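Observation: inputs received (chain + manganese (II) ion).
Thought: call the complex predictor directly.
Action: predict_structure
Action Input:
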Amino acid sequence: MKMSFRWFGESFDTVKLWQIRQIPGMVGIISTLYDTKPGDEWALPAIQELKKQVTDAGLQLLGIESVNIHDAIKVGTPDRDAYIQNYINTIRKLGSEGIKLICYNFMPVFDWTRSDLAKPRPDGSTVLAYDQTKIDLIDPEGMFKQLDGGSNGFVLPGWEPERMVHIRELFDLYKGVTEEKLFENLVYFLKAIMPVCDDNDVNMAIHIDDPCWSVFGLPRIISSKEKLLRVMEAVPNPHNGVTLCTGSLSSDPSNDIPDIIRSLKGRIHFAHMRNTKHTAPGVFEESAHYAVDGSLDMYAIMEAFVDIGFEGPMRPDHGRAIWGEISMPGYGLYDRALGSQYLLGLYDAIKRQKS
Ligand SMILES: [Mn+2]
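Observation:
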């Protein structure tokens, strides 16, 4: 396992690479070209510059989160092949620079949904939270306005304002796109890109849908063990893999996360470690990574990663806002640094016990 940190780039992130470098055990950076739009082909000099910044800081660029998928590919419109070709070109360029991991998601319209970006907790920290009863009261445009207004002035990943101004058109585009159709479009995309992944040894890692159920009537296909295995079996190439996000999977408490990890042995290329606290069906908030602070058995989850011999990048997912830090919600330095140390502690202890 390689402990890593998500970083949005010099122009977008409040956290500096030198700060990340000082977190014990931190070896990798997961980044992106945050100013590229979904569907754009990435420019090689920009990839090289990003890699140089990370390498110069004494860290490795272990993967990209995300190379976003254009809606034409998800919907399956006639222009999708041109966007898939752009994606293929980007994979080839990343592979040529030694960047062998691409995280992506296949959620219609939005990357993720929350009802609150700064829910106060009793200790004075604030966290991202989800309450289905609040979501039921607003429409997608209201959702965007609410998130945008609470983002501390940062552009939230997957909620880019230039896409969101077209939110009604986007919803129209997805009319008639059932779960089955979305699944077919994902398989079409994966089959088209697997040859270039083979040639460049690049792993594709699809992120779990967040939350694991339909929001605003949009289909969800990456939300349970059965659905994940179906995608793995439909395109059995090992380069077709998963970003195992514990927080997203945990939105549905019926997901047995250690069991899902074991069932995906060899196909998990990237791990997002996050804990959530559930208070009612469809109501949860993000907690500290420490197991006791939330509802997830982080020990059992880490043990499953050790048991499958997971060697890919793992990163602390969203953290709480603590100690007065102002950052993109979920992506401050302090709580993710704390979380990484807890995760490394679990990992070391479990590894030693089993050796
Ligand atoms: Mn995640």
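Thought: report the result.
Final Answer: The radius of gyration is 19 Å. The CA atoms of residues 72 and 339 lie 37 Å apart.
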